[in-house]
Design a protein that fits this description.
The chain is built from 16 helices and 22 strands. By secondary structure, the chain is of the alpha/beta class. Helix 15 links the parallel strand 20 and strand 21. It is elongated.
Length: about 600
């Protein structure tokens, strides 16, 4: 074997005469990698170990095996070109072997050097081209068979000459012809509605080809539905995250305003004698209550919301809401079909009630000509999870209406914050997003089944809980508590004024300060007080920092933190909490709870 560069063609020479092999090596040296052997049997073993052999040159007359027989066997294990060296006496056998396709050509002994070199060079080039073509054919076939895309080559008449026949039946024949005529690469995105009513996204790429004077089109159709749905989920998640950040940022100031509005309306209502004035106050109070609910909906998109997950019985919650749903929606009929053995779930009962009420109101609005609503519960085991719902046990709460339903385009957007089809002033676009956020925060999801003219079914999925449901007791108005000296820290003057008035009406003495620094100065000065009531978010020191300082300097002193957005879990365990906006009765209840926490 001669040394050669790696990209040189490999030639296998087989002749029982060693002198002939030496002469051949001298003839081909420098242009080829040359392998030699005097044994046809040994040559077959070499071929099995050397798949890159490009040309096999064999003598015809060999005692171990005739050349044409050896080359026929060699072709069974190698795609190399085969050449036979022979004398005139063997010419008939050689011509027969050529005609039968067992060998590619032959040369007479003694050979003419340049003619033989040319014959071997042409044979090596045929092998290279044939193997390159075979590789490209196998590659194209593998792409067609294994690619998730539809791939095909179309001629000028729209016939598929290679690849998946289905590409010819896909929409876009006019675009195919335009791409062929222009010679430009095309890239088109198609949005279609599948048989299940869900949108499908496909990308069609067109590559014009010129082959031997004829024009063809390579067409690749990719189903990008899953990718687009993942992108939409990501966009939705980013929107909710941005909304949560916005909500957290404005909630404190907004709830301060609502606290002042609620408080002043409550104080005015207590003194108003005129019936007409009372109605005005009641209308304003109702508007302020809607503002409070709107803030709660905004906060439900973020962990800053008041999400208290506990074990609850969904049937009990639904049955307890029956009268509220009927009174609020004025629906003709609400049918309850509740599974008797329904599992307990992990959820925030208050937010679940609000979600159900939202769905009932949506159902009413979807039936302008009237109709019924059915609410059902059932136990479901998910064996194969997906990105939106892990495998496990769930309880489904489904609310179905008999309304007009939604088109696929509308259904695809209903969970987007602020998207609404209701007329201006009737919808905020936060109902379904809030329901979805509640379910997701509890570890579940919300699904939608709808169609134009087919009504709508919204299903809430909540994870099963093996714990016993927590008992839900009605709030009891606290009995009178002793007169307290309260240190009040609040930076907003309107909220501070309302808080002071509420405390005085409850019979307590108030010392007011505008920030945490002033509050700690009073504590350090040793001024007498029985309880500290502080806002959570203030310039300088936060309510949590004030609570820790009070606990360190005056152990056992009750602290009540008033907050419009803070996560309760982030507050010190020994303090009481009160959510803004609040009423006088809610303040009184919170004061009692703070006293009990400090002195259980």
């Amino acid at each position: 074997m001669t040394g050669a560069a790696p990209d040189m063609p490999t030639i296998l020479l087989v002749d029982d005469e060693a002198e002939i092999l030496v002469a051949f090596e001298d003839l081909l040296d420098g242009d080829y990698r040359v392998l030699t052997t005097t044994s046809p049997a040994r040559a077959l073993d070499m071929l099995a170990a050397e798949p890159d052999v490009a040309v096999i040159v064999s003598d015809q007359r060999m005692p171990e095996m005739p050349g044409h027989v050896f080359l026929a066997r060699a072709r069974e294990i190698s795609s190399a070109e085969t050449l036979l060296l022979t004398g005139y006496a063997d010419i008939e056998a050689v011509i027969s072997a050529v005609n039968e396709g067992r060998i590619g050509g032959y040369a007479h002994k003694p050979w003419e050097p340049e003619a033989l070199r040319s014959m071997i060079a042409q044979a090596a080039e045929r092998t290279r081209l044939r193997r390159q073509l075979a590789f490209e054919q196998q590659l194209f076939t593998a792409l067609i068979e294994r690619s998730p895309d539809l791939i095909g080559v179309i001629d000028m008449q729209g016939r598929v000459v290679r690849g998946d026949p289905e590409v010819a039946y896909q929409p876009g024949r006019a675009q195919d012809e335009a791409a062929i005529a222009s010679g430009r690469v095309g890239d088109e995105e198609l949005r279609e509605i599948g048989a299940d009513g869900q949108p499908r996204y496909r990308r069609v790429r067109r590559f014009p080809l010129e082959i031997e004077g004829a024009t063809y089109l390579l067409k690749v159709i990719s189903d990008e539905s899953e990718q687009r749905l993942l992108q939409l989920r990501l966009q939705q998640s980013e929107k909710l995250q941005a909304l949560g950040t916005l909500a957290g940022g404005i909630a404190h100031d907004f709830n301060n305003l609502l606290t002042a509005v609620h408080g002043n309306l409550e104080l005015a209502a207590a003194r108003a004698q005129d019936a007409r004035l009372q109605r005005y106050i009641e209308s304003a109070t109702e508007a302020a209550r809607r503002g409070t609910n709107l803030t709660k909906r905004l906060l439900s998109f973020t962990r800053q919301g008041e999400m208290t997950v506990e074990t609850a019985n969904p049937n009990g919650i639904l049955l307890g809401m029956r009268e509220l749903i009927l009174r609020t929606t004025e629906l003709d009929e609400v049918a309850f079909d509740l599974a008797p053995d329904v599992w307990s779930v992990h959820t925030d009962p208050e937010q679940l009630e609000l979600a159900i009420l939202n769905l009932a109101i949506n159902a009413r609005d979807a039936m302008p000509r009237g109709g019924g609503v059915a609410i059902t519960t059932s136990n479901v085991t998910v064996t194969r999870g997906d990105p939106d719902l892990r495998a496990g046990d769930y309880v489904t709460i489904a609310l179905a209406d008999e309304g007009d339903g939604m088109t696929p385009e509308v259904a695809a957007r209903v969970f987007e914050p602020f998207f609404t089809t209701k007329e201006r002033g009737r919808g905020t676009g936060l109902g379904l997003p809030m329901v979805n956020a509640m379910a997701v925060n509890a570890g579940g999801r919300v699904t939608l089944e709808t169609g134009a003219g087919q009504g709508t079914t919204v299903t809430i999925w909540l994870p099963r809980s093996d714990a016993e449901p927590a008992s839900r007791q009605e709030a009891v108005a606290p009995e009178g508590i002793r007169v307290l000296r309260v240190l009040l820290a609040e930076d907003d003057p309107d909220v501070r004024a309302i808080s002071e008035e509420y405390l005085r009406q409850l019979g307590h003495q108030v010392m007011s300060v505008r920030d945490g620094g002033e509050a700690l100065d009073r504590v350090a000065a040793g001024e007498p007080f029985d309880l500290v009531m502080t806002d959570f978010a203030m310039p300088g020191l936060s309510g949590a920092e004030i609570a820790e300082a009070v606990l360190h300097r005056r152990p056992g002193t009750p602290v009540l933190i008033v907050t419009g957005f803070a996560d309760v879990a982030a507050l010190p365990a020994h303090v009481g909490t009160l959510r803004k906006p609040f009423t006088r009765n809610e303040l009184e209840t919170a004061l009692c709870a703070a006293l009990e926490q400090a002195h259980p």
